[in-house]
Design brief:
By secondary structure, the chain is of the alpha/beta class. 39% of the residues lie in helices and 20% in strands. The two termini are 30 Å apart. This is RNase H type-1 domain-containing protein.
């Protein structure tokens, strides 16, 4: 799972370098480079505590003609930054696009999650997809987007902006899922720590 997310992130970074005419490694070398990058990163990390294996944890593809867009965030308290991770897959489970962006840490985790949701919607728009199911693991944020509530709260403008953006799609919906089912998007969000910072609002 981590190797897949690292490879997706590496391809995304390679594409961005090409856009500004920076030198890039050949596409045939990406898999090896991503593996080496992940191995170097993991060598400096503490070994995770092994937990009992959970059952019935499986990402489910959308129906034919639809896309499923998962989004998540990670907060880097020590640097005052946050990461956004997004992955879009089709009805066969094929990855259509992925994204890892680093931003300045907002005032609350809720705000970061809403920024991740909005970035997911914008990415779908940028790629020209018209039908998408959006999945995130913050029940509060998903409920706000599904019901259009909290518009008068401190995050109301983000709820409104996200709903305004998503209304340009032909078909869309927001669903809450468990953290374990949103693992790839979360790994991408954590990988954003290694990216250049972007100011996103």
């Amino acid at each position: 799972m981590e190797l897949f997310a690292t490879t997706a992130w590496y391809i995304w970074c390679r594409r961005n370098k090409m856009r500004v005419s920076e030198p890039v490694v050949p596409m045939s070398s990406v898999a090896g480079e991503a593996y080496q990058y992940l191995a170097t990163y993991q060598s400096g990390q503490p070994r995770p505590v092994r937990l009992a294996k959970r059952k019935n944890i499986k990402w489910k593809p959308p129906s034919t003609g639809m896309y499923k867009t998962n989004f998540d965030n990670a907060v880097f308290e020590e640097s005052g930054e946050a990461g956004i991770g997004v992955i879009i897959r089709n009805s066969r489970g094929k990855v259509m696009a992925s994204l890892a962006e680093k931003i300045l840490k907002p005032s609350s985790v809720e705000t970061v999650e809403l920024l991740a949701a909005r970035r997911a919607v914008i990415l779908v728009q940028e790629l020209g997809f018209k039908n998408s199911i959006f999945e995130g693991d913050s029940e509060t944020v998903i409920n706000s987007l599904r019901n259009g509530d909290r518009l008068k709260s401190f995050i109301g403008h983000l709820v409104q902006d996200t709903l305004s953006d998503v209304n340009s799609l032909r078909s869309w919906s927001f669903f809450h899922i468990g953290r374990q089912d949103n693992a790839v998007a979360h790994v991408l969000a954590k990988r954003a720590r290694l990216s250049f910072i972007l100011i996103f609002g």
